[in-house]
User: What shape does this take?
Amino acid sequence: MVTIGQKSRFGPKPQITLLHPERTTKRLREIALKDSAELPSMKKAYPEKFVSENEIFNHIHRGDRIFISTACGEPQYLVSALMNYVESYPKAFFDTEVFQVWTLGVAPYADEKFKHNFRHNSFFVGSSTRQAVNEGLADYSPIFLSEIPNLFYRGVVPIDVALIQTSPPDRHGYMSLGISVDISKAATEKASLVIAQINSYMPRVHGDGFIHLKEVDFIVPYDEPLLEYGTQEDGDNSLFQQIGKYVSRLIEDGDTIQVGYGSIPNAILSSLHHKKHLGVHTELLSDGVVKLMKRGIIDNTQKKINRGKTVTTFCMGQKETYDYLHDNPSVEFRTVEYTNNPLIIAQHDNMTAINSALEIDLTGQATAESIGKIFYSGIGGQADFMRGAVLSRNGKTILALQSTAENGQVSRIVPYLKEGAGITLNRGDVHYVVTEYGMAYLHGKNIRERALELIAIAHPKFRPWLLQEAKKLNLIYRDQAFVPGKRGEYPEELETHRTTKMGLEILLRPVRISDEPLVKDLFYSLSDRSLYRRFISVRKDMPHERLQEFVIIDYSKETVILAVIEGEPKEKIVGMGQYAINEPMHTAEVSFVVRDNYQKKGIGAELLFYVTYLAKRQGLLGFTAEVLVENQPMLSLFEKMGFDIQRRRSEGVYELKMAFKEVR
Assistant: This one.
C-alpha cells in the first residue's frame, strides 16, 4: 500500500491511499470487466486510437497546454508514462503548461528537473505542489471554480491536450469520466488532443460525464486502483466532534447541504444521524455523504430542483464509495459550471453551505486559500456555495473551524488577516462561525457585535489578547470588561431545554459576553412597573456600563441564566434569573425578571427551579432577596418552592431569607 500525504501546521491534511487491486470490491470489478469486454470490438472499429504510448506522446508539441483530470480522478499511469517519455526524450517538447484543479497524487511535472519541459499551473494548490508554487517553480491561478470551464470555452485558457481517465466503453461506445466530471468535461470538449486512460476501476456514473470513443484521439487501456482520499486523524477527534455537534444544531430536517472535505466536515456529517430528508447539492462528494445516503438520512425528497438526486461534480473517497456510485441513478455528476453556479445553488430552498477557513478576523472576513503571503490552497468552490446559499430562500452559511492551529499555539480567530492573505469570504458571506467553543451569529451584526461574538468562541487563552487588540482597533468599547481564565469561560454544560407548564419550549442557558444586545432588548421591553419591581428603582436607562454587570460574569462568584426562545433570525430572551454568592454566609442573593408579554407562562418557575438546582449543586445553603410587598407574584413563586422563608419588612420591601430544605 502506498500512502501520499503531508501534515500541515494548520491541521490534518489529506491522506491519499493507493490500495492493492485485490482489495477492490468484487462486485465493482465484475461489472467493470464486463464493460471491458467491449474493448476488443472497439479496437477493431478504431484501430488508429490504440497505438503505442511513444506514438501518442509524439503528438504533444512545444508550448502546448496540457490538462490533467482532478484529484482522485487523476490518470496516474498516463502521467507516469508521460514523465517516462520525457526522461527518454528530454528534447521532445519544451515549455508545456500543465493545468490541474487539484493535485492529490505525485506531481513530477512540478519537479525542478523538468522545469524546461513543464510549467505547472494550478487552479487549487495541493500539498504535492504547494512548495513549488511558493518557490516560484509553479503557478497558481485564483478563480472561482464555477468559472474555469468558461475560460476553456472562450479560449482565455486554451487547452491543447487533455489527459483524462474513464470507465470502459459500453456497447454504444460511451465512456464515463467517473469521479472527475468537474472541469474535465469542458477540457475534453475543447482540447485538440484527447488521451484517455481506460480503467476498469473507474465507476460509471450518471449525469454529464459521458464521452464517446469518437471524441477521444488516443486510448490507453490500463487498470489500476483509483486514488483514495482520507484524513489523518492526528488532531483531537473529540474537538472535531464538538464542532460537528454545534453545526448539527443549525441544520434542519429537509435542508439541502453542501459540505467541504477534511476532519471537521467528516465530524459534521457523522453528527447528522438524527436528521431527516436532507438533500445534497455539492461540489465534492465524500464518504460521509454516501454513508448518510445509505442510512436514508439523505433522500433528496425535499429539494426544490433535482428532486431525488444527490448532485455533485467530483468525488474524493474510498473504494466503498466508488462502488456505491457505479451505475447509481440516485447520484448525478454534473459539470462544475452547473453545480457551483450561485444562481443554481440559490434555487434550493433552505440551502446550507458549510465550509472551513484558515483564519477569520474579528470583522468577519476569512481566508481559506493562503496563510499570509503563503499560497496554501485556493478559492475553489467555497465562495460559489456561500454566496449561492446567501441568495437562497431561508439559506444559511456556516464557517466551521478549529479555534487554533500549530498545536494550539496560533489562534485562527485574529484581529485582522495577515498581510498578503487572500480574502476568500468577505464580511457579508458568513452567517455563522462555529468552533469547538460555540457558535457566533454574524449576519446583520455591527462590527462591535461581531468582534464580541467571535472573541466569545475563540480559544480561552487568546481571548484577553483579542480583547486588547480589538480595543486598540476601536472595534469594541474601550471599557469592555472581561473575566480571564476558567472563571470567565462559558459553561456550556449548564445549557438545558425545558417545557413550561403552559407548554412553552425554552432554552435555559448561561449568559455570554456577546449577549449584551439581547439583554438590552430584554430590559427595554419591560414596562415601567416590571422595571421597578426588578430594580426597586425609578431609573429606566440601561447603558453599556450597566449592561456589562449582567453579561460579564465570574462564574465562580455568580450565575446568570437566560430563558431563551430559539429561532430565526435570532434568539429572544424572555426571562433572566441570577444569583450572586455571599461567601461569608454561603448563601446567594437571587433575582428574576420575565418579559411582560411572557409572564404567567411558567418561565419564572422554570428559572427559579433551575437556579435553585445550580445553587444547591454548589453547596449553597439558601437564597436572600429583596421583594416589594406589592409584588405578590414573586412572593408566591418563592413560597411554592418550599423554602424555609424568614421575612423582614422595611419601607414597603420584604427582606427574605430562604433556606433550602434538606431532602430526606
Observations:
- Residues 25-224 form a domain with the Glutaconate Coenzyme A-transferase fold (CATH 3.40.1080.10).
- The CA atoms of residues 5 and 209 lie 28 Å apart.
